[in-house]
Amino acid sequence: MSANSLPEGAAVWHSLEVDKALDLLDSNADSGLTPQEIEERLQKYGPNELEETAGRSTWEILLDQFKNIMLLMLIGVALISGFLDLMRLQSGHLKPGEVPFKDTIAILAIVILNGILGYVQESRAEKALAALKKMTSPLVRVIRDARLVEIAAKELVPGDVMLLEAGMQIAADGRLIEQSNLQIRESALTGEAEAVNKQASLKLPEETSLGDRLNVVFQGTEVVQGRGKVLVTNTGMTTELGKIATMLQAVESEPTPLQQRMTQLGNVLVTGSLILVAIVVVGGVIKDRGFKNIQELLEVSLSMAVAVVPEGLPAVITVTLALGTQRMVRQNALIRKLPAVETLGSVTTICSDKTGTLTQNKMVVQSVFTNNKTFRVTGEGYTPTGDFQLDGQKVSLEDSPEIAALSVACAICNDSVLQKEQGEWAILGDPTEGALLTLAGKAGIEKDQWNSKLPRVREFPFSSERKRMSVITQVEGVATGEASSRGIDPANASGTPKVNAGFLQSEPYLMFTKGSPELILARCTQIHLGDDTAPVTEAQRQNILAENDLKASKGLRVLGFAYKPLTEIPPEGSDETSEQGLVWLGLVGMLDAPRPEVRAAVQECREAGIRPVMITGDHQLTARAIATDLGIAEEGARVLTGQELQRMSDQELEQNVDLVSIYARVSPEHKLRIVQALQRRGRFVAMTGDGVNDAPALKQADIGIAMGITGTDVSKEASDMVLLDDNFATIVSATKEGRVVYTNIRRFIKYILGSNIGEVLTIAAAPLIGLGGVPLTPLQILWMNLVTDGLPALALAVEPPEPDVMQRPPFSPRESIFARGLGSYMIRIGIIFAIISIALMWWAYQHTHAAGYQGDPETWKTMVFTTLCIAQMGHAIAIRSNNRLTIEMNPFSNIFVLVAVVVTTILQLMLVYVPPLRDFFGTHYLNMQELGVCIGFSALMFVWIEAEKIFLRIMGKKAV
Predict the structure, then answer these.
(1) CA angle at residue 357 from 691 to 560, to 5 degrees?
(2) Does the active-site annotation cover 353?
(3) How far apart are the C-alpha atoms of 180 and 570, rounded to whole Å?
(4) Residue ranges of the alpha helices (H) in 289-400?
(5) Given the DSSP bridges, would you call strands 349-352 and 685-689 parallel, antiparallel or unpaired?
(6) Burial tier of 734 (Cβ tally within 10 Å: 0-12, 13-18, 19+)
(7) In 382-508, where do the E strands start and end?
(8) Would you list the DSSP string of 42-59?
(9) pLDDT, tens digit, for every residue of 313-335?
(10) Which pTM does this prediction carry?
(11) Which helix (H) or strand (E) holds 449?
């Protein structure tokens, strides 16, 4: 059947038998689709992706930029300025060579440029988000061309045969072919939180409601437990989830708290400026008892209004956040929700899983304990070559049949695949199970061969609650009796270690069980010794438990193994009764070594006032060994186990949560209680997680951090941030970056608003000290706010972290942007700025109005304009650090500031010395003496800020 003749999705798959569904989609349950069929169906159906909603159109995004209240006010200023120019033009009061409407044209041009900048940043952010979604596309395991392969979910097509296992988020709709104890949570579609038990053998009526379709699975739902094989029937927008997606329109992303504060700041500043305009105009009219000077009043008012508003601030903040997220991505921290950028800098507690985050997630079996003997296992990584040693001497597996039996259990009770890719051995599946397959390979046990002789007929899957798993196999291909003793490898009966007849028995079925050693041992009544079994004694139990504790205390992860002969296949759901009366095989101890960079990251956390906490499902002794090694806890530190936590009330847990840094043997639901207890204590919590059941804790945490490699899709969806390398050190790096972003935002807000206050005071002072006219036009003020302030502010946004950024406690994200003295700094610097400018203004006015002065008397205004602009350059250089003097800093550590200062200074001088620009901006030529005076007064701003640092250093205080 060609792709063109496949059903168009109208088939009611839940009402069809499995064979009928396979026929309709021309697929095979065992071999899947061929490469040619896959290509044809990809062309027909397209990728398995939920199409991006159209969202706002290009024009809507662009127009939205001009809804900003500050830009609206500038548009109003431009219109009034144009009206005044029109009046002068009609009355013939324009000066010779003066360009009419230049203020209006310039202001509108800057407004448009500001709008375009916002548009570019917003559209670029959306494209970046789409690219990051592709980076985090979930992977699925499918059968194609009779091979098990792992592919990106977007490559799925109708007719694919997809494999499901616990923890997955299902990537497409499909008809179940077979299942084992499969439970799926379908709350994404049905709203029902209770997991649904699926049954492949059912054939349901066509009118069956969505929540009752027990023989199909749906995209976006979660596999809670069990495993299954699924025929993919619908992909992309034809899935049930896709149908919902088509009804959704573009959803505006919520502004971050910082952006909300900036919006509020804009509202306050615009309101304040309008009030100021009203006061000046009304006061002037009352003073003049009429409107004869209304034009001059409007010019003063417009200049003050423009000076109050930091027109470049929104763009600078947007760029800063964008740059921060980009830097975090380069450090393997993918920010999914923008508020995380701010909140990261305020984290006080990091709750981290152990496996893969604090450690390398490459498990290697170090030793096995069976028949009261500890065998050391050699070898590296996942390569299935190595020796078994007893007291330093290599042992023959023929002389140790218990090892062979234990190795068979390791291979059979296993859902992972060990395969060679590009010359290297790799694991497809769980690293722990991969280590067991590697161990079996070292004993000559190949999983594929044994699976064909002991085929799996049922299983009791692993879950975080049970802490064990069992598989039931049919003993059909391996002979019993004397013949069975010839070889462990059923495909090669010579030259291999023996498996005794007692192990294989004459029963038709065998159940292999693995899991927590304490729980497995408690269910055992016999023990496997050499070629026979015997009742397990209390002394043997204590010896096994002591060996388990010894291995765990050395940081090993320990699993217990057992088996049980069966006369029949146990029914589903009978695990509690079936997993009794087991035969103990032995212990396997494996090591997941700590990541080498984590130790330094933990130390950095402590210096930064952040408490690292380990939360793991592993043994308490294993947890303590790793935590002590990494510096998370001291030697002999208290370990709180899941059993102890279960018995605690919320109040008791809250009393203990600040005292415990190691939690062991906990289940995912315990994580939620730990997070809530920490938050009730006022802590800001970052929580890592990778499983489906971690989602509540990830959502509850102030920063939910999912694992990018081992994490399930559900945990990623619930998170604020995804660790692309699953590394604890990356969390610390991202926290540092969050602090830097917030510090830089505060830095350039100080820089911009401090100068704005100085501008307003200078403009207001001119008439008060008897100087005629307004020293700055709206056009010149816009130049200062967007160019003189804007370029250095952008450079300050990429200021590298100060040396002590991770050597101080975190700040609360609830604090005001003006907290910790920032508001008083802006007022103080604004006043100093104004005093310097007013002093210069008074001197310049006297100088340009003195008898015999050869230049234009209005030159004093250009001197004020130039002084304000160049003073800001000194401000930008000095404000790079709150505490260190400029001479103590490497001038090239932020080359962008130097470039911005040089470029802005050159541009400012061009306004004075390039005739066309001089005419347009209404400036006047300055001689060298006048320029020198401007530079001298401007330098006082730099000197004052550096002197403040010295004063605060002497007083023992830190600047904000």
Answers:
(1) 70
(2) yes
(3) 13
(4) 294-308, 313-330, 339-344
(5) parallel
(6) buried
(7) 388-390, 393-394, 417-421, 424-428, 456-460, 468-474
(8) HHHH--S-PPPP--S-HH
(9) 767 777 777 788 888 888 898 88
(10) 0.61
(11) helix 447-453
